[in-house]
Amino acid sequence: MASEVLAKPQMRGLLARRLRIHMVGAFLVSLGVAALYKFGVAEPRKKAYADFYKNYSPEKDFEEMKKAGIFRSIK
């Protein structure tokens, strides 16, 4: 059998190099999640609130609640 000499693995700086790669990956993933949340949740929510309050009348809503008997102190 021919015995081959294996090259020694690079051990010095291994943690720092792998940590740098993982930190860049984690940063990119977090940016992606933040963008998905902003455009998938926050923007539609802001639009829904804007659409609701565009035609909202508090006086009309108060009169409807008054007719329904929600307020006990108002006849």
From TrEMBL:
GO terms (BP aspect): mitochondrial electron transport, cytochrome c to oxygen
The name this protein goes by in its record: Cytochrome c oxidase subunit 6C
PANTHER family: CYTOCHROME C OXIDASE SUBUNIT 6C
Membrane topology: Single-pass membrane protein
Keyword ATP-binding: no
Top-rank taxon: Eukaryota
Subcellular location: Mitochondrion inner membrane
Function: Component of the cytochrome c oxidase, the last enzyme in the mitochondrial electron transport chain which drives oxidative phosphorylation. The respiratory chain contains 3 multisubunit complexes succinate dehydrogenase (complex II, CII), ubiquinol-cytochrome c oxidoreductase (cytochrome b-c1 complex, complex III, CIII) and cytochrome c oxidase (complex IV, CIV), that cooperate to transfer electrons derived from NADH and succinate to molecular oxygen, creating an electrochemical gradient over the inner membrane that drives transmembrane transport and the ATP synthase.
UniProt gene name: COX6C
InterPro entries: Cytochrome_c_oxidase_VIc, Cytochrome_c_oxidase_VIc/VIIs, Cytochrome_c_oxidase_VIc_sf
Family, per entry: Belongs to the cytochrome c oxidase subunit 6c family.
Lineage: Eukaryota, Metazoa, Chordata, Craniata, Vertebrata
